[in-house]
Amino acid sequence: MFDLIGGLVAAYVVYALIDGSVLAKRGAWGERIERASEPHRYWIVIAIYAGLAVALVTVF
What we know:
By secondary structure, the chain is α+β, with helices and mostly antiparallel strands. The chain has helices at 2-19, 39-58; strands at residues 21-26, 29-34. The chain contains two helices and two strands.
């Protein structure tokens, strides 16, 4: 089960890398972060999601 979720998160990371924007949790809802306008925050969120995907596949 966690392998499937990890695969889905990894697929979202690939999609976000291609698209140039990522959805991150902020407050009660989410916020779309664009690579062009906020590159530092964008890469931080990508790294967190990629780490989550690896952890879901390997640890659980």
